[in-house]
Write a structure and sequence with these properties.
Chain lengths: 581, 203
């Protein structure tokens, strides 16, 4: 039996707030329960007295049977160590919680998400609008009593599939094709998207007047997208411009939203695994990893040695793939039409060949299982990995370096552009290469090691200017570090089983909560799950790094030129499958 | 800022450009449209352009490659298809998007279930190619196919595969997944022998 999670125990906060702070004593739960009226005081103390400077995740849970809504926070110290988990519980009828945006500005988008999907109101939030659903959407879809179109049953497997599985298409099942609810008085035929946009444009009212330039330029709102922003997906930026200078920008997304978390809550534990592939579809192995860790922690199992090595191997290959794409397409955003990105894709193809041989699919790998991996490495794969990490990739990365790093055009376009200082990055909850490029050497593989990362030699890459160029350099160097880890993995990988116990299609997950996080290629990828002992999770939440990193887009872009904004977006490296979920 | 960085970068592109021709000249005709040429372009030491000219050329898929599932049947003496499936329903229960539909056979006289599916459907529009059905089927009765060219003109009539459409012979399975097949056959044999031994011991 693995040791149960120890979160926040090294510091007994109860001594500091004896009057109102309580331990969360539900079996399987950890952390603290804070009364809503003391939340801000507690948050202040955490940040300023106890060093929890980065608020990693904010989400809500609907405890329908108890009539409660709970907001769950995970905060961390950028000096390292485990996350601290604390919660606020409020009445489900009128869920109002003070917003912590004034303390941790990085809570901005995540609080909006909790408002959008769960209907928890955050008092004092500067801009509490919906974020994934459209303005005017009825209801809050992650609430337990909300039912999606084509709703069949609360949980899979559905009874209609077996033993009397007379096939039926979803479209045919509902004569009206779906069961979408519209708000009272809403007429879909007369609705136009302007109404939603008005809400957004209104938030700019205060900055629209008062141009201070000598040229007496007018301030205007320009919509970039929804489509182009160099086609990282369907994404839109609403920019306020003063001449060519960006005054403010708000990203609008959710066009790919499919309520991943609701799908997850309908699924069994195992069934979620292939859905995680579709989050950041560039790095599905890494997505599998985080989810497997979260569930394994609750189950109290650990994979065998060989499986641990295979996992690390896949995760690091994934990091290389993701960073290659990020670098290649950053150059696209800079206007270097496709040559660099295709060079990056060449190397990626060879790594995808490995994924395909191992997992059966190039991108939707679905390879991790609770307590191991789906199957052992097929013959010849290890040799192929060896060839890549000892021969080809180091050479190719050096070539990339020669090709781009000192290119003068790249440098003028990226140096000093989109600057984020260390303080800003921490405050805005940036993680991954963004945080490290701003001078904060925070990498979960070192700060709070999981799996077997404590065994490998590698450096946490860090740069200090916090601009687009440094983000590029951090990614390039991280590829080298990943290669270094991979070389140790292929040297040390032992023989043996790749799965603890028998493979099972129905796993028993004891009641409780768990937060599993990995250093994904794009930042902290966390899974918050709550089990009530049933075959399906009660709550399944993804703390998606691309989504949270977007919080700092406005900070990076303000004061810069409109032409740079696409480059800045490219340097954040988002994948909309993960942003929109 | 003297432009040297740009020149150096261009030198890299130029080398790539030249290398493509050198490789083509060096390997000659064999490089394209031949099995060994395709194989050479999937190796880790490949140089030059290594795109595959689909559909004239096809990339050889690895054994574990998965697409849509198929149902394995063994061919009987008179050519009848003996599906391995016992309609236990595990695949239908494990399938994440719930696209497997199974009707169990009931004995006409007793009404008791018979271990064979009366009907078996997969809605391939919904199948997410995850492979969980094949992974957890206890009878090796459903496997993932390698055939990825299944586009059709009418999604309303062609995309729900029935038992006929899903069925493929065991020999096909042995051909596309030889190593898995060998492993499973060995396990089957071992189990049969163990069973026989147990029987002999109790008798
Ligand atoms: S799991 Fe296998 S035997 Fe059971 S119903 Fe599915 S295909 Fe048939
Ligand atoms: S491959 Fe996955 S989605 Fe497709 S039928 Fe099998 S279990 Fe269902």
């Amino acid at each position: 039996m693995a040791e149960s999670p120890v979160v926040g125990t090294q510091l007994n906060l109860l001594d500091h707030f004896p009057e109102w702070l309580k331990k969360d004593e539900r079996p399987g739960f950890e952390g603290y329960i804070v009364p809503a009226e003391h939340l801000l005081e507690f948050a202040h103390a955490l940040r300023d007295r106890f060093g929890y400077d980065l608020l990693s995740s904010v989400t809500g849970v609907d405890y329908l049977p108890e009539g409660k809504m709970e907001v769950v926070y995970h905060a961390l110290q950028t000096t390292g160590g485990p996350v601290l988990n604390f919660k606020v519980q409020v009445d489900r009828q009128n869920p109002v919680v003070p917003s912590v945006v004034s303390i941790w500005p990085g809570a901005d988008f995540q609080e909006r998400e909790a408002w959008d999907l769960l209907g928890i109101r955050f008092e004092g939030h500067p801009d509490l609008r919906r974020i994934l659903m459209w303005e005017g959407f009825a209801g809050h879809p992650l609430r337990k009593d909300w039912k999606e179109p084509y709703f069949e049953e609360e949980a899979k497997p559905y009874k209609s599939r077996w033993p009397e599985g007379h096939v039926q298409r979803a479209e045919d099942r509902h004569p009206l094709h779906d069961n979408v609810d519209y708000p009272a008085g809403f007429d879909p035929d007369s609705w136009s998207p302007e109404t939603a946009d008005d809400v957004l444009y209104k938030t700019y009212q205060s900055i629209m007047e008062g141009s201070d330039s000598e040229l007496h330029t007018d301030r205007m709102i320009v919509n970039l997208g929804p489509q182009h922003p160099s086609t990282h997906g369907v994404f839109r930026m609403v920019v306020v411009l003063d001449g060519e200078t960006v005054v403010d920008v708000k990203p609008v997304f959710g066009y790919l939203h499919r309520n991943h978390e609701k799908i997850g809550e309908r699924c069994t534990w195992l069934q979620i695994m292939p859905f995680t592939d579709r989050l950041d579809y560039i790095s599905s192995m890494s997505n599998n990893f985080g989810y497997a860790l979260a569930v394994e922690r609750l189950m109290g199992i650990k994979p065998p040695e060989r499986a641990e090595y295979i996992r690390v191997m896949m995760a690091e290959l994934t990091r290389i793939v993701s960073h290659l794409i990020s670098i290649g397409f950053l150059l696209n955003d800079l206007g270097a039409y496709f040559t660099p990105s295709l060079y990056a894709l060449e190397e990626r193809e060879l790594i995808l060949d490995i994924f395909e041989a191992v997992s059966g699919s190039r991108m939707m790998c679905n390879y991790f299982r609770f307590g191991g991996v789906a199957r052992d490495l097929p013959e010849g794969v290890l040799d192929k990995v060896k060839e890549l990490v000892f021969e080809r990739l180091p050479r190719k990365i050096d070539e990339f370096d020669r090709y781009l790093t000192r290119n003068e055009i790249v440098r003028v376009r990226t140096e000093g552009v989109g600057v984020l200082t260390a303080e800003q990055a921490i405050a805005l909850s940036a993680t991954g290469p963004i945080l490290r490029a701003s001078g904060v050497p925070y990498d979960i593989r070192r700060a709070d090691p999981y799996s077997i990362y404590d065994r490998f030699d590698f450096d946490v890459v860090v740069r200090y200017h916090g601009d687009v160029y440094d983000r590029y350099l951090v990614r390039l160097e991280e590829i080298r570090q990943s290669i270094r880890i991979l070389q140790q993995v292929v040297r040390d990988i032992p023989e043996g089983p790749v799965q603890t116990g028998k493979p099972q299609w129905q796993v028993r997950v004891p009641a409780g909560e768990s937060y599993g996080r990995v250093e994904g290629p794009k930042g902290e990828l966390g899974y918050y799950i709550v089990s009530n002992g049933k075959p399906n999770p009660w709550r399944y939440h993804v703390r998606a790094p691309s989504f949270v990193n977007l919080t700092s887009l406005a900070q990076m872009a303000r004061g810069g030129k409109v032409a740079d904004i696409v480059v800045i977006l490219g340097s954040i490296d988002i994948v909309l499958g993960e942003v929109d979920r | 800022m003297n432009g040297l960085g740009i020149v150096r970068g261009l030198w890299v592109t130029f080398k790539h450009f030249i290398l493509t021709y050198i490789e083509d000249i060096r390997t000659g005709k064999r490089r394209y449209y031949s099995p060994e040429g395709i194989l050479a372009r999937t190796k880790g030491d490949v140089q030059g352009a290594f795109t595959i000219q689909y559909p004239e050329e096809k990339y050889p898929v690895p054994e574990e490659f998965r697409y849509i599932p198929f149902l394995v049947y063994e061919e009987g003496e008179n050519g009848q298809k003996n599906y391995r499936c016992t309609s236990c329903g595990i695949c239908a229960k494990v399938c994440p998007p719930q696209c497997i539909w199974i009707v169990r056979t009931n004995d006409l006289n007793t009404g008791k279930p018979i271990p064979a599916p009366a009907e078996f459907y997969i809605d391939v529009d919904i199948c997410m190619n995850c492979g969980l059905c094949a992974e957890y089927c206890p009878f090796d009765a459903i496997k993932m196919d390698h055939d990825y060219e299944i586009a059709s003109y009418n999604r309303f009539t062609d995309h729900i595969f029935n038992k006929e459409r899903l069925g493929k012979p065991l020999s096909y399975y042995a051909q596309i997944r030889p190593q898995n097949f060998a492993r499973e056959e060995a396990a089957r044999k071992a189990e049969m022998e163990a069973k026989a031994a147990r029987k002999a011991a109790t008798a």
